[in-house]
Amino acid sequence: MIPFKPSDAPRVTQDEMQAIYQRIRTPKKLGAVVKWENDYTDSPTVFFHNGRFYMYFIAISKDTRVSGYETHLSVSDDLVNWSYVGPIFRRNDLDRWDSRQCAGYAAFMDIRFDGSYTLGKPGGSYYISYLAGNSDGYEPDPLYMGLAKSTDPTDPNGFERFPTPILSPYDSDVRPYEEKTLYKSFLFEDTEGVTGYKYVNAYNAKDNSHKERIFLAVSNDAEHWERYGDRAVLDRITDDPAGIITGDPQIVRMGDIYIMHYFHFRAGAGAYDTFACSRDLVNWTLWDGEPLISPTESWENVHAHKPWCIFHNGIYHHFYCAVNDQGERFIALAVSE
Description:
The protein is 3% helix and 45% strand. It has one helix and 20 strands. It has one helix spanning 14-24; strands at 28-34, 39-49, 52-61, 70-76, 83-89, 101-106, 126-133, 144-150, 160-161, 181-189, 199-206, 212-219, 226-228, 243-254, 257-266, 272-278, 285-286, 303-312, 315-323, 329-335. It has a four-stranded antiparallel sheet with strand order 1-20-19-18, with no helix packed on it. Strands 2-3-4-5 form a four-stranded antiparallel sheet, with no helix packed on it. Strands 6-7-8-9 form a four-stranded antiparallel sheet, with no helix packed on it. The N and C termini lie far apart (44 Å).
């Protein structure tokens, strides 16, 4: 475990939070953009490549008892209308640690708010991080963090998976509250050097209480990772008996402020997307106003969560997973006015 780098960066103020909220709020809901009849679609991660937008997303058969996560690819020219390209990761019978669950996420994207949203190429390769496991079902424990690389991020057959996890709940440096399962990971380049390492990994994990918090890991080569700090950096669970999940981080940088999009879930209420801000990636100011996305419509009346946001042509696009009481789970889109 690597200690947090000392920081004297000032906290983000509530006035700054209010100004940021006005820039990233997305009140106009456009509805479903990726919805399959026989599968749940989930966890979109969107990037720009060779003049088009691409989306990695995960799918799982609605009969979750005998299925597991797989990763797929779609393409769009306008971020609204999406065409299916093909599978990226399929489940297999090789009896590896990642054979039955393989949920992939775009890695090393340009995180600047007004940036290109293209993918970086550490060491000359494109990468996908992925949630991995070897049991059937809906997120069965334990789950590990895998990594795969390719020369073409849009080639459905181009990614080579690493032979072992990059992080595991059984690692020797595992911290309190992450000893059970590791979930979604967001890998990015620390261009400003705030951690002292070249790359950062933000991810949510849980312990035996089945509650989730957000942690960091760091790397200098994008492939070998060590945990950063002795605690979670975003913990909305410890002081809230009703808190269940703080998860699925995506980090965007606006000037010298990092915006962490994430979702929060409390017992007795639907999951919703919100944000926090920091100047050092460790000390975060929570937004305590209206959620960025919450389950307000009949077609998403259970959960509206798992954010991925893109600023393009003056419009902020907020992709998320919508869940309703009709047994539907699909990828939806909301935009700024």
